[in-house]
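new request in #modeling-help
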Amino acid sequence: MIKRIADRLFKWYCHPNYYPDIKGDLEELYADHEEEGSRYAQLKYLLDVVLLFRLSLLRPIFKNSMINDLDMFKNYFKISFRNLAKHKGYTVINIIGVAVGLAAFLLINQYIKFERSYDSFHRSAENIYRVTSDQIVDGQLGVRDAMSFNPSGKVLTDEVPEISEYALSYNIGRATIKKGESLVNEESVKMADEHFIAFFGHKVVAGDVGSMLKEPYSIVLTQSKARFYFGDNEAVGKSLHLFSGFDRDFKVTGVIEDVPLNTHYKFDILISISTVQDRLDDEAWGGFNYYTYVRIDKGTDIEALEEKLIPIKDKYMAEGSSLYFNLQPVQEIHLNSDMTFEPEVTGSKKSVNFLELISIFILVIAWVNYINLSTAKAVDRAKEVGLRKVIGAGKKQLRIQFLVEALLINMMGALVAFGIVVIVSPSFNNLVEMKIIDQIWKDAYFYAMLAGFALLGTLISGFYPAIFLSNFKIISVLKGKFRNSKGGVSLRKGLVVFQFATSIALIGSTLIVMKQVDYMRNMDMGMNIDQVVTFSNPTPQRGERDQMRDRVKTFIETLKQDASVLGAATSTSIPGGESNEIASTSGGVRIIGLTDRLDATTYIHTVDENYFELLDIELLNGRNFNKDMASDSSAVIVNQAFLDRFNLSDPSVLNEHIQFGQDPENDKYHIIGVLQNVNRTTLKKSAEPTCYFFDPVLHRSLVKLSPRNIDKSLELIENTWAEMFPTSTLEYSFINERFDRLYKEDRRFGSVFSIFSGFALLVAILGLFGLISFIASQRTKEVGVRKVLGATETHIVALFYREFLILICIASLIGIPIVFFGMNAWLDNYAHRIGFPWLVVVASLLIVIVCSLVTVSSRVLKVAAMNPANTLKYE
Amino acid sequence: MKKYQLGEFEEIVLLTVGVLFNEAYGVAIKEEIEKRLKRKVSVGALQSALRRMEKKGYLDSRQGESNQKRGGKPKRFFTITAYGKEALKYSQDVRTQLWNAIPEVALDLKFG
């Protein structure tokens, strides 16, 4: 057996002239070796064959001489060029189709690649996990929180052998820093421990990796921030003055390279977390407000490891706590996390997969165009093929000829696609609101994709036409009997149906996405947020809390005196915030005497007495807070969602008491009112079960302006602020802008989606245009005959319309179910979703019908108008 | 510029073909080299050397008889051409010259 295989191999590669005598030698040796065992002899034979694989003994690669082949090869290109040049319109349609399809595909792919590359650049990123907190009650998974307790990382590293190191961080968010005489508002400031930089492997430009975040009041800047504050001077060793609760100098101890955009944990400035060491010690296992990352040994079974963490949780956390440690791979955070308190809005795996699907569809549509057009053109080429065959061309040569044509189209398409990508990449970056494509001409991956898909396109789109065209029968073709075969026609119709179906599906889905986003933005949120401007009040320095409260009070009073200010309030959080912009408790809650303790997250929102009125939030029952009643400091107003969770049969809860946690001391809060549900955050989520507490002055302000003269009112706020709080910056935003920002991901998805659906339709229409041109030109005679027999122009146009309408109907039978099932699944992601909008589907169908009929008309009207005398003259 | 290109292995093969005179075919040459030089020769190395030297003109070949043991395939016998002989002679001369050029002392020296 081995010998037979070896022999085959040898015969295949050996030069035929040498084969007989070398084979003889091998046989002889084999016979000699056989005495020592058949297997040994066979292996020896195989070894000899392998060693015989030498250049000087190889069969020549080309049967004919090289020169001849090259000539033929050149000829393929020459003829292809002539052919393409002869049918310029057809060539241009094909190239544009391929180019647009390829460009769209590559752009989307860059985006997808970016989205999937999140957090992959860290040092051994696949072993990094984030410690998060799962609330599990009676085996039911409740709220999943992205944060953990501040000692978690250290304890886990000490107690679990598989966990080798950890890093601890806290998200400050904004901070005000003094630069010269002016104040700068930094958007992305985080606290981190001394392990943090080495843990993630951030590249250090200056300073010592291990110690730069060790000492309290140390600050580490990214390169661009260092340049911003210190120019070209050495930053390390200098100091920066930080307000926002510190009001003191921080020593710059290090500079690191800018953090890439593709991480869920972005920052410009790091402060040593030891700065707030006393707070860390105070909180310990009392509050989980920290992002903790651990590195776990390769090959560890994570589920088994999480089991092992349960005894550790029992050891450290409060007894009976419903919180469990959870380990989340860092690379999955961006696309695969639905936790609360994420440091930034995460992406959606579904959307990314969806986009990938679209990109493939666009590419396939472009390829289908080529197949359609080149087979439709077969009649033109039939004579050529026949003649070539008569002269002696084989099928293989004809196929190569047609493949070369496909290659040329695809390569030119790729070239144009490259141009398109380079030109539109800035607008694409704008569209997705992130600089994803940067210097694409340096990106080897991009070139590989471009070349790879151009070649793949050549094979896929060129293969069928090549086979089809090379199979013509010489005699029938040369006799002029050739007409498009039935099979060819129905294939082309099938492909057109595919294109229409895809277009309908894409347009329908796009419209639904836009409608949903629109719905969320315009939905009645249970409050009136028009012309409400919000900002954070200055953070008081240590020990100056009361003074600051008084000054904020005065500030608000001053503003209220102006006629353009309709009202003002303070609150702990502002509507339109992300999930981490509100406090919460997971300690369990009950209404004394009415319900059992419920282990679930309750959101805590503290407001002053003006808040509800300012936002027109309706009280369903009871009364608002009153600042003159001392007892209101222990009063609470709950919202409908909070009550709904208890399934209360008797909705009258006024004057009942709420107890948080199990501490009997904690039962003093009496309910004074019930509020209607208000959507504080995105409508993806349902209303949060919330308890409202009272405090007359809080650290965020809301000011309602009169719709007239908004600019002047803003100026007033700015001036008053500058007068009263010279060491703080004012960063205001309108609440509706904040809500818009929450829907950024959805809007982005919607706009990317709509643009590429547009591309898909464009490519499909382009193909249809090419196709109808050929069909029309082929059927001029038929039209002539029909006209002679009495058909009017209207009849003839209707004839063509009917054919395409039938195709569109079939396409909609395929496309509409896809939209229905796909988009229903997508809409289910939202707590507040629109019903399936059938009208939108009809609209998308109409768009496709109108576009294609216009395209068809552009050619058919001309053909229908022709004088039959001209078209039939030559018969 | 070298006048005759002859590698070490090629030289051995060429000489062996001479030794075997009219009986030099693949297996015989292989066995002769293995016997005399006590070194393993693969069919591949031998055959490529033979074909190379045939192309260069050092060797000539003729087809011989076939037998059952060879699976019915003919033997190919090789003989040295005049040109091949010249190449061998040249190679021997070069060596002799070099030998003569070495001073006696250099060979007597003992390194210890």
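bot summary: The mean pLDDT of chain B is 84.
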